[in-house]
Write the structure tokens for this entry.
Amino acid sequence: MKTKTVYVGIISREAYKARTMAIARGEYLPKKHEPKIWFESLQSMAQILSNENRKLLKVIVTQKPASLAELETITGRKKSNLSRTLKTLERYGIVKLHKEKNRTVPEVLATEFRVAFGLDELAA
């Protein structure tokens, strides 16, 4: 399995907005190893990168299902549940859903996660 490392960060919504605006104004240039995926809290990160979701990602990487129907058969999870989970993972850039003919094929874009956060974003 080829490893694709993605840097994940935890930052408040306000700090994320300020960071995004500074980038847009050209006042800040993100460094290579800064997070590409941001969460507001450890809890929100834990929901997205739960054991169940990480197992799902591993199944996709190792089994390479050709459709959501095939993934449903492999995992025993309902297609509607898989679709919802995969769309959420796609919003975070962890998965890409390709439309091929009359089927949706999932592709895992991130296989390893490095988490970065500090105390600066916490309210006093």
Q: What stands out?
A: The chain has a mean pLDDT of 90. The first strand starts at residue 5 and ends at 10. Residues 4 and 110 are 5 Å apart (CA to CA). The beta strands are 5-10, 37-39, 95-100, 103-108, 112-116.
